[in-house]
Amino acid sequence: MADLPLVVVADPIDRAAVEALRAGPCRVVDASGDPKSLAAPLADAWGLIVRSRTKVTAELLTGAPHLTLVARAGVGVDNVDLAATGARGIRVVNAPTAATVSVAELTVSLYLLLVRELLPAIGATRAGKWERGTRGHELSGRTVGYVGYGRIAREVARRASAFRARAIAFDPFVASAPDGTEMVALPELLARSDIVSLHAALTPDNRHLLDAAAFARMRPGSYLVNVARGPLVDEAALLGALDGGRLAGAALDVYEVEPPMNRALLEHPRVIPTPHLGASTEEAQRRAGADVVDEVLRALRGEPLTALVPAPGGRP
Question: Which residue, of 200, 256, 261, 299, has the fewest CB within 10 Å?
Answer without folding.
Answer: 261
